[in-house]
Amino acid sequence: MLSLEAWSRGAARVVCVERDPVAVRAIRGNVSALGAEVEVRRGDARRLDNARYDLVFADPPYADDPTVWANRLAASVRPEGVLVLEHRAGALTPRSLVGLLVDWQRRYGDTEITMLAPKP
């Protein structure tokens, strides 16, 4: 889980948001076992609080449109921050992004990782 990796590398604040209650329990168990200072919330990551983050990792369901997720999460990324989005390969529509630019993309089979940065 990337949120635990960020914590282990010294992130000042880590918030993990997950919809699935079974996954939330598993995440909380892992956080507790590690003694990690990670806030675990059950909810929809597209509805984050009004906080802005330096780094946002998002792994929406593959059936969802990743462009919609990126556009909703854009407001949660600080101007100097980045959004890293894991999605179905070829599903992101860069020309439909609002306030974000694609910094890079990598494809791994049917999965794509896209790093997005706020437009200057």
Task: Give a short summary of the structure.
The protein is an alpha/beta fold.
Question: Secondary-structure element order, as H and E?
Answer: HEHEEHEEE
C-alpha-based Rg, rounded: 14 Å
The tally of beta strands, per DSSP, is 6
CATH hierarchy: architecture of the largest domain: 3-Layer(aba) Sandwich
| The CATH homology group name of the largest domain | Vaccinia Virus protein VP39
CATH fold-level assignment of the largest domain: Rossmann fold
- Helix fraction by DSSP (H/I, runs of at least 4): 10-25%
How does this model look, in words?
This protein has helices at 2-8, 21-34, 66-73, and strands at 15-18, 39-42, 53-58, 77-88, 100-108, 111-118. It is α/β, with parallel strands linked by helices and 120 residues long. The protein folds into 2 domains: 1-43, no CATH class; 52-120, 3-Layer(aba) Sandwich (Rossmann fold). The strands form 2 sheets. It has a 4-stranded mixed sheet with strand order 3-4-6-5, with helices on one face. A two-stranded parallel ribbon has the order 1-2. The radius of gyration is 14 Å and the shape is globular. The mean pLDDT is 91.
